[in-house]
Amino acid sequence: MYLKNSPSRLHIFLGIIVIAIVHFLIPWSIDRSPLLAESYYGEAVTEEMALHFLKGELQLLFWGQP
Known about the structure:
single chain, about 0% strand, elongated
């Protein structure tokens, strides 16, 4: 059943594009923020730790922790 006021495929596609852009702009703006410039909040820390673990370098503490 086709509804008269249903969104077109173009509207759905544009909505997905807007959501994708916002999804990447928010972490990018957080990354560029001077307040959080020295923090480790991303997934890269755990990935780097995993790579070092595979090389045989064991860590006692999580990186970035006192």
